Amino acid sequence: MRKLLFIFLVIMTFSLTGCSGNGDAKSDSPVMNVEMKKDANGNSHKIENGNYQCFYTVSKGKTGRIRVTAETVGGSIDVKISNVNDASDVPYTGNNLGNASFTVNLPKTGEYKVWVTCKDFEGKYNFEYVE
């Protein structure tokens, strides 16, 4: 049973991409801690604490968009989307997203970073890049 739980936790850890996208997306996860907790009914819940980042590249002559979705059951999730090479280009900053679904336009050619901060977050989030 312990071996099965260990395998489950390893699979959950590697499946936490937080970002999904097409094209030139790369992921580099700083520190996102995941803890599995059981409620009074014995149901398991994933709790996330820490930071996650992923990158998307807008090709020359194109306009990029990131579709953001978040479904929050508990805790909080903050998101910042910024141009890696231009500190003044920050198309989105949001704290405590809650339940949200929206699109962020990436107006300039270059690489953009999506930085996610979770505090006792329980729920789902996704970032989808479209060019």
Notable features of this structure?
eight-stranded mixed beta sheet, mainly beta
Report on the structure:
This protein is mainly beta. It is 11% helix and 60% strand. It is built from one helix and eight strands. Strands 1, 2, 3, 4, 5, 6, 7 and 8 form an eight-stranded mixed sheet that branches. The model is unreliable at 4-18 and 20-27 (pLDDT under 50).
Short account of what is shown:
Helices cover 11% and strands 60% of the residues. It contains one helix and eight strands.
Radius of gyration: 16 Å
Largest sheet: 8 strands, mixed
Number of helices: 1
Strand-pairing-aware structural class: mainly beta
Choose one word for the global shape: elongated
Q: Based on DSSP secondary structure assignment, what is the total number of beta strands?
A: 8
What gap, in angstroms, lies between the N and C termini? 45 Å
Helix content: 10-25%
SSE topology string = HEEEEEEEE
What fraction of the residues are assigned to beta strands by DSSP? over 45%
Task: Identify low-pLDDT runs.
Answer: 4-18, 20-27
Oligomer category: single chain
- The whole-number mean of residue pLDDT values reads 81
List the helices and strands and how they pair.
Elements: H1 2-15, E1 20-21, E2 25-27, E3 31-38, E4 44-58, E5 64-83, E6 92-94, E7 100-106, E8 110-130
Parallel strand pairs: 1-8
Antiparallel strand pairs: 2-4, 3-4, 4-8, 5-6, 5-7, 5-8
